[in-house]
DUF4280 domain-containing protein
Amino acid sequence: MSQYITDTTQLKCDKGASQTSLTVTSQSFMKIEGKLEATEEDKQPNSNIKPFGVCSVLRSSCTPSPVKWDNTSDFEIEGKKELLDNSTCQCSVGGKISVVKSAQNFVEE
């Protein structure tokens, strides 16, 4: 079952050399375990998504160029679809951004 992701969730780009954490700025009131929930609008380079080190496509700094989040939730926060741990975002340079590890602590039943 897919889980919602929050501020500080670890992201990776399949063309980048390192991971980075997501910074949620698209909304300011929906939280899980005290962290803001991420939405499809959290895709601004350097603001929401920091560089991923060296890009294997550009052979230089991997500054993200996100296009659109896919595999989002059916649920919305102020008209913006919530992101899930299986959401991905295509980068216009050629890479695919995905979730490495959610910032939430999941309890298995």
User: Anything to note?
Assistant: The chain has one domain: 1-100. The two ends are 12 Å apart (CA to CA). The first strand starts at residue 10 and ends at 13. The chain is about 0% helix and 25% strand.
